[in-house]
Amino acid sequence: MDIRDQVVIVTGSGQGIGRGIAWEYAKREAIVIIAELQEQLGMALEHELLSAGYRAKFIQTDVTNVTQIELLVAQVIEEFGKIDTLVNNAGITIFKSIFDCTIEDWDKMMNTDLRSVFLLSKAVGKEMVKRKKGAIINIASNHVLATLPNTEMYAAAKSGVIGFTKSLALSLGDKGIRVNAISPGFMDTHHHRTWLTQFEQPDVVQAHINGLHATRRIGNPEEVGNMCVYLSSSMAKQMTGANIVLDGGLSTRLYTSQYE
Ligand SMILES: NC(=O)c1ccc[n+]([C@@H]2O[C@H](COP(=O)([O-])OP(=O)(O)OC[C@H]3O[C@@H](n4cnc5c(N)ncnc54)[C@H](O)[C@@H]3O)[C@@H](O)[C@H]2O)c1
């Protein structure tokens, strides 16, 4: 796909899904900006991508900090002259009972998963408007379609991302900027593997989870990266305001029962 030489910012790309997204862009000869909070992770990915012969730059960024976001954008523009794609991927997960959730939890969740999308889209969007060109991709979640108990804050933040995506797509459509969301489901990341270790028989739990998917397996970060690459390319030029669900059919199931 024609994304060679694109300058692409991927937030939270030091590990997990973001890391997979960064690799998929790098492999297709884009210039990847690793906008990651954790220095060690960002440096390590930059080193790996450069060692593999790809182009990448780590710029330590806290997406909850407006000053750092402005510095990120200024630095990328100064060094590379443009931003073609912004992937708002950085996010945290706080799953607990509403009675245990504090205002600090709420603010942290919203600032990381939702306000960051607003701040980054605004700062990067201003640059994209100048060139009348760009793609913004927001990583939401299949929790926007169907959710679980004790995930209220996460479901609310991600649902906010979808509403934001749709409105921004309408606002920037005539300025050559497309805005889309991707909603992944279970992903094979270190978080998932750590989560499985709490169970006595992780293999049994994984087999059960796999069985809930139409594809009979969970997804992986590369697949999210491939979808991002597509959304950045001219193949997706009529695609904007969409929420692409990438969960192997998990959220299409009406209910789970032995009587189905
Ligand atoms: N893993 C899943 O199963 C799954 C499913 C659906 C959606 N998602 C979404 O995908 C995105 C990535 O999830 P993941 O599982 O890879 O998470 P992760 O925790 O493995 O990675 C998130 C990365 O974001 C970084 N980060 C956190 N706060 C940041 C901040 N303030 N500024 C900059 N970087 C920050 C972390 O350091 C980390 O490197 C999130 O938005 C998440 O909600 C994940």
From TrEMBL:
Pfam families from the UniProt entry: adh_short_C2 (PF13561)
Coiled-coil zones: none
PROSITE patterns linked: ADH_SHORT
SUPFAM superfamilies xrefs: NAD(P)-binding Rossmann-fold domains
Domain of life: Bacteria
UniProt cross-references to InterPro entries, sorted A to Z: NAD(P)-bd_dom_sf (IPR036291), Sc_DH/Rdtase_CS (IPR020904), SDR (IPR050259), SDR_fam (IPR002347)
Family: Belongs to the short-chain dehydrogenases/reductases (SDR) family.
Protein name: SDR family oxidoreductase
Upper lineage: Bacteria, Bacillati, Bacillota, Bacilli, Bacillales
